[in-house]
UniProtKB/TrEMBL annotation:
The keyword Transmembrane helix applies. Plays an important role in regulating the size of autophagosomes during the formation process. One of its GO terms (cellular component) is endoplasmic reticulum membrane. Residues 563-582 have a biased composition (Basic and acidic residues). Its main location: endoplasmic reticulum. The keyword Membrane applies. Residues 29-93 form the J domain. This is DnaJ homolog subfamily C member 16. GO terms for biological process: autophagy. It is a single-pass type IV membrane protein. It comes from Diceros bicornis minor (South-central black rhinoceros). It is found in: Endoplasmic reticulum membrane. Keywords: Autophagy, Endoplasmic reticulum, Glycoprotein, Membrane, Signal, Transmembrane, Transmembrane helix.
Length: 782
């Protein structure tokens, strides 16, 4: 009896805690915080957020509760601006991506605990690894959502590869590979590999986009491209898979025969060169990942100290062969600019070392991007950055003025000054802007000190009065200007707007086209031979069906032609022609008989007056088939529409309407957002979105169940100018023999062709085999 009372008290306590949690979650309502309705559009939500953010920003609003209010506003906008989080909040009352899963888990644990208290089972019985907290805690911090994948993972994959696991609930294989996955994650994450986990049950859109149709699946992403892992899930295979994702030319093998050529490439590549000396015969994965992350800034080489002939390099650069050593070379190939040596180097140590040596002592400005990085815009008085620019002619060997400028840059100790040089013949507009109009600097080098004021190209600068020869007097004058500049920034008295630098290292158009073509062919090859065959089945089925139809048609045509030739006789040719002439009218008549002579199709216009009765409050089981048209295409499209749907007018469950695109474009575009495919990820917003032609679209709207089916015309033809003069058609359209004789019919054939497949689509609509797009509620038709 006492045990039963104790059990009841525990049950009451658990129920009370759950009620308190639910009440605390209900306190925060993002719709109430932003002051919008549950059916508000994204534009309304964004507008409300901007208004409230300006009003409650802590910098502008001195109210003590302004900061908390601003945090609530930001959190509410974060939930409602993301369709997935908004949907989760609408369904579960919380924006968590796995809220449904968590609730199921809590209920399951409650029942298990209750069962356990009554029957005294061993506690380990209820810790089966399916859906347990222990299992989820491993992957929790790596969970990916669709927006996070698109906005962060894909751009970051150009700097480091990502290893992603697709998992789900009640997956035996997922549990089997979990120990190996945990071990590999701990190792590869420390080397700089990105890790991600996608739960296919709650992130179906992302799993579909990645092409994962089964769990568990493991894939890699690099440079935005997806590659699937197809081998046994063991540590070594996964490590080799990540290594295979990296490009093969990241690290060059350097020996005593090619090290001079490798280090001398700084002038052509405009990059420092890095050498790693190690006892491993193969390049370490950590070094390859570092080379991939900094491939735009440095060139990497690897020296195997156990190779014959490596003693010459180790002796020349005084390298300790018993510990990994990294040397950075800049303009001087005989002496490294910086050295680091340690056993068991960590990624953070290497990253700090590389970041300190990303640029040459006097880097050549070869692009506008490099100019932004080396000479940033002034943000404040304490963040001033000055650039000393040497304007010189291009030369195969180092000239005396450049060597003197380089030695001056090497002796510089000011953090606020950067030294760069420009080839005047390659960047003529840039050089002419900084040089005075006199003939003093014709064919000679010059030095200019500048400070950037904005990203539009505005700079203040000071050009040395005399050409730069590299003499001691020139160095003394430049040093005096820099010392004076620290005390008086007004020394830079001249002002100009610099033009953008041309990208000197960009490949020519033909090479870019070849690179794009090779990438496309490589992607096709991978998709055919390495992707999931389940994805390829529809394509293969389509190809083989087309080939079968093509060859079948050719064979049938060949046999029919041979039979005709055997049966036909030359004297009977005239008779055959006469018979053919007689049957022509019958064929035409037979075809025309498909068009009803006395047909009537009632097509009403969908307006704000008829919207509620024809859609919102439409009886269950009834659908409204709506044609989208414009004023210029109204007559032609309605004629064709009535002709195509006439055979379906016998059904009392179908209603027919048309919608003016000129009046209700926003309503249509809101609806079509729910019919977008999730797989493609656009690189940029469509600039001609408002000019998109939706004439000829047909929507089958189910008002009661809140879904619609979409018909898109296969061909979009530009409407002729003469269509603009056509008069409007009545909402009730009669089909008669006089059809096609109106003045509009002369230029309406291409427009009518948009609805040529509508009857087949209507058959599929009645069969129920069309895809349905559900919406939360019908928007208002203003």
């Amino acid at each position: 009896m006492e045990v039963k009372k104790l059990s009841l008290s525990w049950q009451f306590l658990i129920v009370l805690v759950l009620i308190l949690q639910i009440l605390s979650a209900l306190d925060f309502d993002p719709y109430r915080v932003l002051g919008v309705s549950r059916t508000a559009s994204q534009a309304d939500i964004k507008k409300a957020y901007k208004k409230l953010a300006r009003e409650w920003h802590p910098d502008k609003n001195k109210d003590p509760g302004a900061e908390d209010k601003f945090i609530q506003i930001s959190k509410a906008y974060e939930i409602l601006s993301n369709e997935e989080k908004r949907s989760n909040y609408d369904h579960y009352g919380d924006a968590g991506e796995s809220q449904g899963y968590q609730k199921q888990q809590q209920q399951r644990e409650y029942h298990f605990r209750h069962f356990h208290e009554n029957f005294y089972f061993d506690e380990s019985f209820f810790h089966f690894p399916f859906n347990s907290e222990r299992r989820d805690s491993i992957d929790e911090k790596y969970l990916l959502h669709f927006s996070h994948y698109v906005n962060e993972v894909v751009p970051d994959s150009f700097k480091k590869p990502y290893l992603i696991k697709i998992t789900s609930d009640w997956c035996f294989s997922c549990i089997h590979i979990e120990p190996v996955w945990k071990e590999v994650v701990q190792e590869l994450e420390g080397l700089g590999v990105g890790i991600g986990v996608v739960h296919a049950g709650y992130e179906r859109r992302l799993a579909h986009h990645l092409g994962a149709h089964s769990t568990p699946s493991i894939l890699g992403i690099i440079n935005g491209k997806i590659s699937f892992f197809h081998n046994a899930v063991v540590r070594e295979n996964l490590r080799q898979f990540v290594e295979s994702l990296l490009p093969g030319n990241l690290v060059e093998k350097v020996t005593n025969k090619n090290y001079v050529r490798f280090l001398s490439g700084w002038q052509q590549e405009n990059k420092p060169h890095v050498l790693l000396f190690d006892q491993m015969p193969v390049v370490p994965l950590l070094y390859k990942l570092t080379a991939f992350a900094y491939k735009d800034y440095l060139s990497f080489g690897y020296v195997y100290v156990g190779l014959r002939g490596a003693e010459e390099m180790t002796r020349q650069y005084n390298v300790n062969v018993y510990a990994p050593t990294i040397l950075v070379f800049k303009e001087h190939t005989h002496k490294p600019a910086d050295v680091i040596q340690a056993r068991g180097m960590k990624k953070q140590v290497i990253d700090d070392f590389i970041n300190q040596n990303k640029y040459l002592l006097a880097t050549r400005l070869t692009s506008q991007k490099l100019f932004h990085e080396l000479c940033p815009v002034k943000r404040s008085h304490r963040q001033r950055k000055y650039c000393v620019v040497l304007l010189t002619a291009e030369a195969t060997k180092l000239s005396k003025p450049f060597e003197a400028f380089l030695s001056f840059a090497l002796a510089n100790t000011q953090d606020t000054v950067r030294f760069v040089h420009v080839y005047s013949n390659r960047q003529q507009e840039f050089a002419n802007t900084l040089l005075p109009d006199s003939d003093t600097f014709q064919g000679k080098s010059a030095v200019s000190i500048l400070e950037r004021r904005n990203t539009a190209g505005r700079v203040v600068y000071k050009t040395l009065e005399d050409p730069w020869t590299g003499s001691e007097s020139d160095k003394f004058i430049l040093l005096g200007y820099l010392d004076q500049l620290r005390k008086d920034p007004a020394l830079l008295s001249s002002e100009a707007v610099l033009p953008d630098l041309t990208d000197e290292l960009a490949p020519i158009f033909l090479l870019r086209w070849l690179y794009s073509a090779s990438d496309y062919i490589s992607d096709c090859w991978d998709s055919v031979f390495h992707n999931n065959w389940r994805e390829m089945m529809p394509l293969l089925s389509l190809v083989f069906s087309a080939l079968f139809i093509l060859f079948g048609t050719v064979i049938v045509q060949a046999f029919s032609d041979s039979n005709d030739e055997r049966e036909s006789n030359p004297p009977d040719k005239e008779e055959a022609h006469e018979k053919a002439g007689k049957t022509e009218p019958n064929f035409t008549k037979e075809n025309s008989s498909k068009i009803p002579k006395k047909g009537f199709v009632e097509v009403t216009e969908l307006t704000d007056v008829t919207y509620t009765s024809n859609l919102v409050r439409l009886r269950p089981g009834h659908m409204n088939v709506v044609l989208i048209l414009s004023n210029s295409t109204k007559t032609s499209l309605l004629q064709k529409f009535a002709l195509e749907v006439y055979t379906f007018t016998g059904s009392s469950c179908l209603h027919f309407s048309f919608l003016s695109l000129d009046k209700h474009r926003e309503w249509l575009e809101y609806l079509l957002e729910f019919a977008q495919d999730a797989a493609p990820i656009p690189n940029q917003y469509d600039k001609h979105f408002m000019e998109r032609d939706y004439t000829g679209y047909v929507l089958a709207l189910n008002g009661h169940k809140k879904y619609f089916c979409l018909f898109k015309p296969q061909k979009t033809v530009e409407e002729e100018e003469a269509m603009g003069s056509c008069s409007d058609l009545d909402s009730s359209l009669h089909l008669g023999e006089s059809r096609g004789k109106s003045s509009c019919a002369l230029g309406s054939k291409p427009i009518k062709g948009k609805l040529s497949k509508l009857s087949l689509w209507m058959e599929r609509l009645l069969e129920g085999s069309l895809q349905r797009f559900y919406i939360p509620s019908w928007p208002e038709l203003d």
